[in-house]
Structures are given as C-alpha cells and as structure tokens.
Specification:
Layout: E1 2-7, E2 10-13, E3 18-26, E4 33-39, E5 46-51, E6 58-60, E7 68-73, E8 78-83, E9 92-99, E10 111-112, E11 116-121
Parallel strand pairs: 2-11
Antiparallel strand pairs: 1-3, 3-8, 4-5, 4-9, 5-6, 7-8, 9-10, 9-11
Amino acid sequence: QVQLVESGGGLVQAGGSLRLSCSASGRTFSNYAMGWFRQAPGKEREFVAGISGKGGSTYYADSVKGRFTISRDNAKNTVYLQMNSLKPEDTAVYYCAAGELASTSPLLMKYWGKGTLVTVSS
C-alpha cells in the first residue's frame, strides 16, 4: 500500500507559478512511476505529467509541455510539479498517482492522493 498526500495548491493569477508536492509513504517509493493528473469541474480526469521510478524519464501532456516540470526526490519520497505561466484553463483539482508502470491513463495508476485545488484567475 502507498499513501499519497498532495500540497501546494492555491489561487494564483494568470502568468504566475505554483509548485505542487506529493509526499508518499508505505512501500519503496522508487519502485513506482509517478504521475500528476487533473480534473476540472464537469470534465474527466486527464493526464498532466509523469516520471519513471528512478526519474530518468519524464513525459507531459501537450497542453502543459514547456510550462510544467515534474521531478522527484526518492530520498524524500516526494514528487513535485513546478507549474509556470499558468493559464485559467489550468484550473482544476490536481492529483498525484503512483503506478507500477508509467502511464498516461488514470485507469492504470494504482494509488491516488485526495487532490489539491489549483485556481488560476484571469
């Protein structure tokens, strides 16, 4: 079992930045690929960014490429999402997820946090 807790969400103006953190406890953190997903009101949960267990591979949704950066610190059991140049359409609840394999599909991620709300005002 892996427990995930997100933090760092909040209200920011368009063009601003936020850094989300996800702290993990339980099984060996580096054994899991990690991902960030988001869900806006009335929309399905969508992939944002992912990173392999050792951190050597990262991948992004086209909508955030060049603006968001995912990273992880396995010594601290934490994964981060640095979000720059935020847009109102980035407003959503952001979820951290862990899976045995890297995936852009929410269905293939095994463990989930409860989410943190990011609101970007225009």
